[in-house]
Write a structure and sequence with these properties.
The chain is α/β, with parallel strands linked by helices and 759 residues long. A five-stranded parallel β-sheet has the order 7-6-5-17-18, sandwiched between helices. It has a four-stranded mixed β-sheet with strand order 2-1-3-4. A three-stranded antiparallel β-sheet has the order 8-13-14. The radius of gyration is 37 Å and the shape is elongated. The relative contact order is 0.09. About 2% of the residues have low confidence.
Length: 759
Amino acid sequence: MTNSVPLGITLVQNLGAPAANTAAAAGLLKVLIAAKATDTAVELTSTNKAASGSKLPFWVVLGDSQQTKLYDANAVVRFLYKTGSLAPADHIAVEQLFEWEEKTLSLFDSEKDMNAMLAAADSKAGQLSGGSTVGAVDAVVLGTMYFVLSNAKSSVLATFPSLQQWFSRQVASAAVTAALPIYTANIVKVLVREEPSLNNRCFNKDVEFNYDPSKKVLPIEGAKNILITSALPYVNNVPHLGNIIGSTLSADVFARYSRIRGNNTLFICGTDEYGTATETKALEEGVSCRELCDKYYAVHKEAYDWFGLSFDQFGRTSTDKQTEIVQGIFNKMHANGFISENTTSQLYCEKCSRFLADRFVEGTCPRCSYEDARGDQCDNHLFIDLDRLQPKCEEFIRRSSVEGKWSSNGLAITNDWLGRGLRPRAITRDLKWGVPVPLPGYESKVFYVWFDACIGYPSITAAYTPEWERWWKNPEQVKLYQFMGKDNVPFHTVVFPSSQIATGEDWTFLHHVSSCEYLNYESGKFSKSRNIGVFGNSARKTGVPADVWRYYLLSSRPETSDTDFTWDNFVSCNNAVLLANIGNLCSRVMKFLDKDTKYAGVIPAADPALIAPGADTADRHFIDDVNKLLAQYIEQMDGVHIKAALTTARDISARGNQYLQFSNMSNALFSDHRAQCDTVMALATNLVYLLSALFYPFMPATAASICRQLNAPLRLLPETFEIDLKPGHVTGRPEYLFTNIDEKKIAQWRAEFGSGTSA
């Protein structure tokens, strides 16, 4: 074979068109530039991997009689430029640069190492052609650098002036000008993925959710001020899943919803620390009541923190503020004549020289023969005259239950109490651990915990802000929502409001009560002593994220009847709902958008004609359907129908999956119907952004992940579905929202946490 240039070469593409950011595309451009610079005819043809049996992306067939094949692009460039015939010094210089390109420059990742690659090339710019000539080294370096140089921002290129000038001369040359159209037609276009930042966001700033938990929340004149309380959990035990869904988690969902609707919201809770139960538990553990409360307060707080509960204040009732406010309320009630005295018989221990609270007395119940029976109520000396307060209490209930749309079971329990007629109820006990009674002759007694527990809400608020009365004595500007299990309903709807009425002060009264029935465990009951059930401090041991627990509990919320926690349903909920519906939608959209051969994370513009109101298109019908479901969700959440709203949010996600399926979001849609594909992606990414708000009350960490992937802030919940992420907005990188749970875990967890049916 001679070293003369053949009449032509044939470039055979074996694996189809290569992506622009690959070594195969760089090799293609090297060959094309060299051929044009040396006036060599090039024919492009293709085969396929199966037929050729080769894994190489391409090869070049020379136009000689032997049909010689060259498999390396640099070898082709050497051949076409006849570098072997150069003077020894020139040949050595060329080979040194070829070696540098092969062993240094071409090894950079063109996206991750862009700046380093530019700097390396700039360092050799002085050894490249100074004019419009395209030499062998120019062809090789330009082929390797073209993707980076053509996609780098001008501001970045300006920092490498020598390289920038060389690149400008090369792309203006006749050889490169002739080669580029052929190159472009035979590669797959790739965009440089811009890293997400605050600077490349493009979104509707009116939807940004700005919530700073470090800032004190006080009522605002003319605003919608929402005060939310969760029933105060007893401090003497560890909360189980039924306790958590019954009050604290449900209240957290509504608090988060209220905030993303733009309402001025305060969420209060804390541990209920006084009473017989605490004294009994302290005796059992051999510690003081204060030590016991400190221990279990930390247990409760740790559990609620793990579940992501967003209290503005999680306090406790064994405080000076509690004493001050309870005694203040009592004194006003007493002064207004709603406290009476009565003498009752009580059990007395001659050895201890003290009256005994019922809980200290154990025995066999004469009615049911239960051997561990304990007293639950006892008569004491001071009573609140609920019978005299009933007319005004009923008036309050009639008004509030209608205006606030009380839960059906909460109203039924309240009406049952009223229907049986209210009677004077004891408010003092013979204990040491509690709020002292500020009345002569009662120095050895404290207030009954059921009387002062609800007053814990104002006292915990007072620990949050000295301006607590702006929340609790401001009925014209504040709406009070209270969450609890059904056992606590009468104390919130009858006893506490009656106490407020008896003071004669202008209190903020209950607006809405949301109460739950019981959550059972595997058809049985939770039991800490028998090690049956999942408790607040043990859920994390499963390794399942808190958001999955939140979702499952809320989807099983016992709103009108008892529900059952089962491991089968828990795993199915994660795999068949969270992973297959919500997770699938987000993953599919974000991965398609992220591909550098398509959008490289940049949101495209929707075709206005396809989404215009009234348009008879699948895209417009999709928008209209989402808006109907969104209105339904808002109505449900406003009415505190939490489980129904969660179902609606899930339906919106399912509608998104249906839209993608119907639209055939695919490579073919992108290549053959670009305007339609752009519209689908613009709507789909904005639906994902809407879902971040819809699921934020239920799964806050999931919402945060979605927003992180979108490179967007947490958002407010709008009235209508809009394009809030604008064209040109750069998204973040895809993440997995959920992972599959192996069904083998069901038996393992059931063994670890016990079987409820055996209780």
